[in-house]
Specification:
This protein is α/β, with parallel strands linked by helices. It has helices spanning 18-26, 46-54, 75-85, 104-112, 149-154, 170-173, 185-196, 225-233, 236-255, 262-282, 287-299, 305-315, 321-339; strands at 5-11, 33-39, 63-67, 90-95, 99-100, 117-127, 145-147, 165-168, 198-210. It has 2 domains: 5-210, Spore Coat Polysaccharide Biosynthesis Protein SpsA, Chain A (Alpha-Beta Complex); 225-339, no CATH class.
Length: 341
């Protein structure tokens, strides 16, 4: 008999989109399936739209509602709460402004039939706030693939979109609950998954990822350097919390007998060094001193050239950040395509 899958749908200020997201869960071809729908104290009419969309929801998909009384300011707390209520062996994550294709859960669960698999993510197509495909902004899926820890840490594969991810429930329950300061659950959770088992990438575009003004990680290409710098610096505390939690996770995994490669330690060293320099720069007002701190960190090989350029642009020449970011993205995409032939 097929195993129960849990679809965890997270909403906040999604009144315009959540009904479509719920309908896409209703259309899933896989059973048995349960839906956990969590609203993080939306100030708009998101909950009313949820109520309306659930009135004719399929009776064979049980629904668990979690209505938070206070906004948590990020996903960790709402993910933690949903995981506590989940009954499925696999938890498929979704956002209240995205749309899952009908085969998403079925295709994903086929991969989890292999007990070694602990983490799966899929390609996405990108849509705008009207649901139209955003031409030229689709993830370039290059075929289904087995993920490697080294490749993931280096960002060598297709980008991981949190709302396209699914995890074996052990990925959550074998570690501490996610700290509140972490904003990028789609960084730490895949790493946890790879610590416990193997990862897979599905090249089928099984999620329609929506870009609009409310996205946490997606900024419109028209935003200024000032907006982009402000957005990036929002993640400074996230990076510090991520490094502390990853260090604890590595210790936890090894204490339980997991064999982790030295690549993990090197990755943590690099990320910690970057975060420490970033935190120091945040406390420094002088542009000249900031420039010196970046140069010292680079010349002593605490950070590499790419990260030194990023920090220099963020903290010394922020008016150039948009242009430098565009160049970095272009070079990264070109390198990725060349690597895949």
């Amino acid at each position: 008999m097929p195993e129960l899958a849990t679809f965890a749908l997270f909403t906040y200020r999604h009144e315009a989109f959540v009904a479509e997201a719920i309908r896409s869960v209703a259309k899933q071809t896989y059973r048995p399936l349960e839906l956990i729908i969590s609203d993080d104290a939306s100030p708009d009419e998101t909950r009313q739209r949820i109520d309306e969309a659930l009135r004719d929801f399929p009776a064979d998909i049980p629904v668990i509602r979690i209505n938070h009384a206070h906004n948590h300011g990020g996903l960790p707390a709402v993910i933690n709460a949903a995981v506590r209520r989940a009954s499925g062996r696999v938890i498929i994550l979704g956002a209240g402004d995205d749309v899952s294709e009908p085969e998403r859960v079925a295709y994903t669960m086929r991969l989890f039939a292999d007990p070694r698999v602990s983490f799966v993510h899929t390609a996405v197509s990108v849509i705008d706030d009207e649901g139209r495909l955003a031409e030229g902004r689709e993830t370039a899926g290059l075929g289904d693939a087995e993920l490697s820890m080294a490749g993931m840490l280096l960002g060598a594969g297709d980008p991981i979109v949190g709302a396209s991810c699914a995890y074996r429930v052990d990925v959550f329950r074998s570690f501490d609950e996610l700290p509140a300061q972490i904003l990028r659950e789609d960084v730490i959770l895949p790493i946890r998954g790879m610590m416990l088992g193997e990862g897979r990438f599905l090249a089928s575009k099984l999620v329609r990822y929506r870009t609009h003004a409310g996205n946490l990680h997606s900024l419109a290409h028209t935003h200024s350097s000032t907006d982009l710098v402000r957005h990036n610096l929002r993640f400074a505390d996230d990076r510090a919390a991520f490094c502390a939690q990853l260090a604890a996770d590595i210790t936890n995994a090894r204490a339980k007998g997991r064999l982790l490669s030295g690549e993990m330690d090197e990755y943590l060293r690099r990320e910690t060094a970057y975060s420490e320099v970033e935190q120091r720069l945040l406390r420094t007002r002088s542009l000249l001193v900031r420039a010196g701190q970046v140069a010292l960190a680079w010349s002593s090989r605490r950070i590499g050239t790419a990260k030194a350029v990023k920090l220099f642009t963020l903290f010394v020449t922020p008016f150039l950040y948009k242009q430098v970011l565009g160049l970095r993205i272009w070079l990264s995409e070109r390198k990725r395509l060349m690597r895949h032939g």
